[in-house]
Design a protein that fits this description.
This protein is of the alpha/beta class. It is 32% helix and 26% strand. The chain contains 17 helices and 25 strands. It has a seven-stranded mixed β-sheet. A hairpin with a 2-residue loop joins strand 19 (363-365) and strand 20. The longest helix is centred in the C-terminal third of the chain and has 17 residues, at 496-512. It is globular and about 65 Å long. It starts with 5 loop residues before the first strand and ends in a 12-residue tail after the last helix. Residues 98-110, 248-253 and 527-533 have low confidence and may be disordered.
Length: 533
C-alpha cells in the first residue's frame, strides 16, 4: 500500500512545465523550452530509457532500432535541429548539396564533419532500400511498373492490374471513407488485393474496410502509380545528391540521415543536454493522476518505486495514450467523452532480434554476389505472421559489432493478451527462426542468438471511436495549459518529425502567448508541414 504522496518542492526559476514521456515529442518540448523560455521542464518517463519507440535497444552490443527510423523531414526546422544535435558526417569526394525549401548549403569533402570511424556523435548519410517479399520473390517498394515487376507478376495478373487501375481512374469511388476505398481509388482493386490488403491487415488486425481512409491520407498521401512512374524518370536523370529531397514524397526517398548508433542515440544526447541546461528527467516515474482546478491542470501525480510524488506546474505536456490520459485526468468528464476515450483502440508490437550466420538469399550486383542491401523488407506472404524484416547491418554498420554476422529484426503486430503477445520469449525466437526459414530467407540452424522486445500501444488505430475523435480533442483542448503532442498524445500515426514539430509549435504558442491549439493539430495534415518561418 502506497503512503501519502510527496509534494515535489524543489526550487525552479519562475515557471515549470511537467512533460509526460521522454520520447521525441517530450524531449523536443523540454529542449525547446530551455532554449527559448525561462520555463524549466521536468520530464517524467515510466521506463529507464530515452526515446520512446525511437529508442535503441542494446543486446550484447548488437543494437536494435524498434520499427525503423529514417531521419528525413521536409521541414527545414527539424532537419537543422537534428544536425545541431548530431553533426553530419564527413562526405567525400566532392560537394554534396543539402536542399532546404529552396535554400541550399554545401558540405565540402572530409573537412565538413566528423569521421564516424573516430567519433561517435555523428549523423550518417545512408542509402534507402525497401522491398516487398511476395510469392517468394522480391518486388520494389514502392511498386514500380518495370519489366522485372511485370514478369514476376505474370502476364495475366499484370493485365488485370492495368485494367483495374484504369477502371479506378475513370470511375473512382466518390468520397472514400474506408482505407479499402482509398487504396482502390489510388491503385485499383487488383493491385490493392495483391500488395496492400494482406500486409495492412497484418498491421492492424482488422479488415481494411473497417479502417478510416484518413490512415491512408496520413501515411501514403502522396504515393500513386503515376508518381512512381514520374519518380522513375526523374531518378534516371538525377545527377546530384540532394539529402533533403524536398521534391520527393516521403515514401520515395532514396537516402536519409541516421545516427551512428541508431535513433536512441539522438534522444540520449538530447536528454543529456536537457539535464545539462537545467531541466530534469525522472525515470521510473509513471504519471497516474493529473490534478485540475477548473479548466487548468495544476499538478501531476507520478508513481515510482518508493511511492508517489506530486509535481505542480504551470504548463503540462502529455505524450501518453489519450485513453490513459483521460483515466488519469481528475475532472468531472461528460459520459459521452468517457465513452469516446474508452473506445480508442491501439495496436501493439513485438520486435524479435535474431543474430544469424548469414542470409540464405543473395543478390547479383555489378560487383558480384553479395548480401541483401535492404533496410527493411515488407513480408506480404500470407502463410507467416511476421510483417516486416529489418537488416540492421544496412541501417548502420555500427549497430553490428561483428560484420561477419547478420543482425535481423522481425516485426510482429499484435494486441496485448492475444496469442502472439502471450508467447514466451523462447517461443517467439523459435517462431521467428521457423518463419524466416519457411519463406526461404535463412536456414533455421544458422540462428546464433536472439532477443525479444515488446512495445505497448505502438500504433494508435483509425477505427473504434476514432471517427468522433474531434469531439474528444475539443474537450481536452479546453484545458488551457495542457498540450497534447506525440503519436499517442495526439492519437495520430505521426513520424518522429511530426511529433517534434507538434512540440515545437506548442512551445511557440507558449512563448508568443497564443491560446489556440489549432496550429498544433495542423501538423501532419497537409502535404507541407507547419513550420515557423
Amino acid at each position: 500500500m502506497l503512503g501519502p504522496p510527496i509534494v515535489y518542492d524543489r526550487r525552479v526559476a519562475l515557471r515549470r512545465a511537467v512533460i509526460i514521456g521522454a520520447g521525441p515529442a517530450g524531449l523536443t518540448a523540454a529542449y525547446e523550452l530551455l532554449k527559448r523560455t525561462d520555463i524549466k521542464p521536468v520530464v517524467l518517463e515510466k521506463s529507464d530509457v530515452m526515446g520512446g519507440i525511437a529508442r535503441t535497444v542494446n543486446y550484447k552490443g548488437y543494437r536494435m532500432d524498434i520499427g525503423g527510423h529514417r531521419f528525413f523531414s521536409k521541414s527545414d526546422r527539424v532537419m537543422q535541429w537534428w544536425l545541431e544535435i548530431l553533426p553530419l558526417q564527413a562526405l567525400s569526394p566532392g560537394t554534396h548539396t543539402i536542399t532546404y525549401r529552396r535554400r541550399q548549403r554545401t558540405v565540402e569533402g572530409s573537412a565538413a564533419g566528423p569521421d564516424p570511424e573516430r567519433e561517435d556523435r555523428v549523423m550518417l548519410v545512408r542509402r534507402r532500400r525497401s522491398r516487398i517479399y511476395f510469392l517468394r520473390r522480391f518486388f520494389e517498394y514502392p511498386i514500380r511498373l518495370t519489366p522485372d515487376t511485370l514478369s514476376k507478376l505474370g502476364l495475366v495478373r499484370s493485365l488485370r492490374i492495368g485494367a483495374s487501375y484504369l477502371r479506378s481512374v475513370l470511375f473512382p469511388i466518390r468520397n472514400p471513407r474506408t482505407l479499402e476505398e482509398f487504396f482502390i481509388n489510388r491503385f485499383g482493386r487488383e493491385l490493392y488485393l495483391t500488395f496492400f490488403k494482406s500486409y495492412t491487415e497484418k498491421v492492424w488486425g482488422v479488415p481494411c474496410r473497417m479502417i478510416s481512409a484518413e490512415w491512408g491520407e496520413q501515411r501514403i498521401k502522396g504515393l500513386s502509380i503515376r508518381k512512381t512512374i514520374v519518380h522513375f524518370m526523374k531518378q534516371a536523370l538525377r545527377k546530384r545528391s540532394d539529402l533533403a529531397q524536398k521534391d520527393l514524397e516521403t515514401s520515395l526517398i532514396e537516402q536519409f540521415l541516421y545516427p551512428k548508433f541508431g535513433p536512441g542515440q539522438m534522444w540520449e544526447e538530447v536528454a543529456r543536454r536537457v539535464v545539462e541546461m537545467g531541466g530534469e528527467i525522472l525515470t521510473g516515474h509513471e504519471a497516474v493522476r493529473l490534478h485540475t482546478n477548473g479548466e487548468r491542470v495544476v499538478a501531476v501525480e507520478a508513481a515510482n518505486s518508493d511511492g508517489t510524488i506530486v509535481i505542480p506546474g504551470d504548463y503540462f505536456f502529455s505524450t501518453m495514450p489519450i485513453r490513459d490520459l483521460m483515466r488519469a485526468l481528475q475532472a468531472p468528464h461528460p459520459p459521452e467523452i468517457v465513452e469516446l476515450s474508452e473506445g480508442l483502440v491501439y495496436r501493439d508490437f513485438i520486435a524479435v532480434g535474431l543474430l544469424v550466420k548469414d542470409l540464405k538469399v543473395k543478390e547479383e550486383t555489378p560487383d558480384g554476389v553479395r548480401r541483401l542491401r535492404d533496410n527493411w523488407i515488407y513480408i506480404q506472404e500470407p502463410d507467416v505472421f511476421v510483417g516486416r524484416l529489418q537488416i540492421f547491418n544496412n541501417w548502420s554498420p555500427y549497430l553490428v559489432p561483428d560484420p561477419s554476422k547478420v543482425w535481423l529484426g522481425l516485426e510482429y503486430f499484435c494486441n496485448q493478451g492475444d496469442k502472439l503477445w502471450s508467447m514466451s520469449d523462447e517461443e517467439l525466437l523459435q517462431l521467428g527462426a521457423q518463419e524466416l526459414s519457411k519463406i526461404g530467407l535463412i536456414e533455421a540452424g544458422d540462428v546464433l542468438d536472439g532477443t525479444v522486445v515488446r512495445m505497448e500501444k505502438t500504433y494508435p488505430a483509425y477505427f473504434g471511436t476514432y471517427s468522433r475523435f474531434e469531439e474528444l480533442r475539443r474537450y481536452l483542448d479546453r484545458f488551457e495549459n495542457l498540450f497534447l503532442i506525440g503519436r499517442n498524445g495526439m492519437h495520430r500515426y505521426n513520424n518522429q518529425d511530426h511529433s517534434m514539430l507538434a512540440a515545437m509549435v506548442a512551445v511557440d504558442n507558449i512563448a508568443a502567448g497564443v491560446r489556440s491549439k489549432d496550429n498544433i493539430w495542423a501538423v501532419n495534415t497537409e502535404q507541407e508541414y507547419i513550420e515557423e518561418k
